[in-house]
Amino acid sequence: MQTQYALKQAGLTLPVTKLFQQHITALLTEQSQQTSVRAVVINFRDPDYSAESGGFHPVEMRFIRKDNEWYFDYVTDFSYMGRVYPELEKEIDFCWSGHYVFHYLIGDISITTEMNELWSLWESNFIEYLAMGVYQVTVTEESC
């Protein structure tokens, strides 16, 4: 029988839905069998995304394992920025360990309602993209 892990929040408290948690805990449960795993980075990539044609932004998430529980570290959404030599840069960054939310057009967001609204909008879009199957998912373990 596999254990289901609940994702914990420390540093920030955002309105993370159960549906989002179900998608992520399914990926984390696969990694939980090895007790030496102290963190997991999950990358979601649209193989067709480019600066020229657009597509679905790459997303990177990191979760830290403490005493057999998983904690949010960060969720970062990247996009190409720049016209002549576009580069992938952070567009939105939710960082629980750093206690901040960042958007490239606004900078740091310190008002809780704005953080919650941005998370809810971002999360609902991300779940839709997952349902559409646009991402290739890779999971990288960090061991002790």
Q: pLDDT below 50 for ≥5 consecutive residues: which ranges?
A: none
Overall residue-averaged pLDDT value: 91
Q: What is the chains' assembly state?
A: single chain
CATH superfamily: Protein of unknown function DUF2787
What's the architecture, going by CATH?
Roll
Number of domains: 1
What gap, in angstroms, lies between the N and C termini? 25 Å
Number of helical stretches of at least 4 residues: 2
Total strands: the figure is: 8
Instruction: Provide the β-strand percentage band.
Output: 35-45%
**Overall geometric form:** globular
CATH class: Alpha Beta
The biggest beta sheet reads: 8 strands, mixed
CATH topology: Nuclear Transport Factor 2, Chain: A
Radius of gyration: 16 Å
Roughly what percent helix?
Answer: 10-25%
Class by SSE composition: alpha+beta
Order of SSEs: EHEEEEEEHE
Protein name: DUF2787 family protein
InterPro entries: DUF2787
Organism: Scandinavium lactucae
